[in-house]
Amino acid sequence: MTTATSDHRLNRPRRSEPEVPTHAHPTTDALPAPDTRSRWKRAVMVWFDSTASASGAREPSRFVRAVRLLPFIAMHAGCLLVIWVGFSWWALAVAVGLYAVRMFAITAFYHRYFSHRSFRTSRPMQFVFALLGCSAVQRGPLWWAAHHREHHRHSDQEGDLHSPRLHGILWSHLLWFLQPENTGTNTKAVPDLIKYPELRWIDRYDGVVPLALALAMFALGWSIEALGGATSGLQMLAWGFFISTVACYHATYTINSLCHVWGRRRFNTNDDSRNNGVLALLTFGEGWHNNHHYFPGSARQGFYWWEFDLTYYVLWVMSKCRLVWDLNPVPERVYKNARGG
User: Does position 183 have pLDDT exceeding 90, yes or no?
Assistant: First the structure.
């Protein structure tokens, strides 16, 4: 970056120097201007250090937007590896398993714990599931919780960053978080979480855990192949990391987009939230979105026994093992206010 001292020196009158032919330094002639280099640095640094987004947010140019899109596009392009690496039951089993584990980490901990504090757990357990949630490549726990809390404050009103009513389906599904101005973490929204240095580290370097998972998938496939198994490093990378992650992406995103336009409304809320059984299956219970918006403090989102909520079932089992505790129930007054839907 250009310092104040260097600016002063640049403004001094310079002694006349012999003219250099324009063709004499093709390398330096081809270098980008310092401003362009700094823009590249700021944009690329966001991939590795989320605090770099603060400077990028002040310059949401087309250039910065394009650089921000590259990792997201690369994740989807990585799924195309399957054309060359093919299929195996090993790879499919790992992909499904990682989808389940990471979906649970997002729904139970990123959402119901970090965002809504609907149950309690220990600090080590909080850390473990922050790591698992981060491996789903949906940013860090502080960023996720801060944006989600703001969503509930302004749901489908001015200030809601991913409202289909205000911005359309595609924006609410994925375009909103790809904008440079939305990459920073609003720490003021998560004062109860910012005090944990381990959570701040995961949030700041939110690309480290996904990268470690990708390398682990390649190593796992290579090891299984070396032992005579019917898979490979690249195949496990394609299925276990890219395909599993992208599936987890879009299942999660449907709650912001489709669950505000498709489904039924049991409760009169000030937004367009809806209950959707199909999406509840894909997201382990998150599809009971109208229930959730009416009473977000509950650890369960399927308020009735027939509303499938796998996340809550697992949390209930964990509570019996004392891994989590104080699961917030649905108050009786909530059921009294329910109507058909």
Answer: no
Q: What angle do CA 95, 287, 250 make, to 5 degrees?
A: 40
3-class SS of residue 125: helix
Best CA proximity match to 240, nearest among 102, 132, 88, 95: 95
- State the residue range of the domain holding 182: 46-336
126 in a structural domain? yes
Residue 2 lies in a domain: no
Residues in Cβ contact with 24 at an 8 Å cutoff, skipping those fewer than 6 apart? none
Hey, is 233 helix, strand or coil?
helix
Q: Is the pLDDT of residue 24 over 90?
A: no
**Share of residues in the chain with pLDDT > 90 (%):** 76
Residue 23 lies in a domain: no
How large is the angle between the packed helices 123-134 and 89-104, nearest 10 degrees?
A: 130
Confirm if 102 and 133 have CB atoms less than 8 A apart: yes
Cα(312)–Cα(112) distance, integer angstroms: 10
For the chain, what is the domain count? 1
Contact in structure between 178 and 72 (CB atoms under 8 Å): yes
Residue 238 is given by DSSP the state I
Residue 1 lies in a domain: no
pTM for this model (two decimals): 0.86
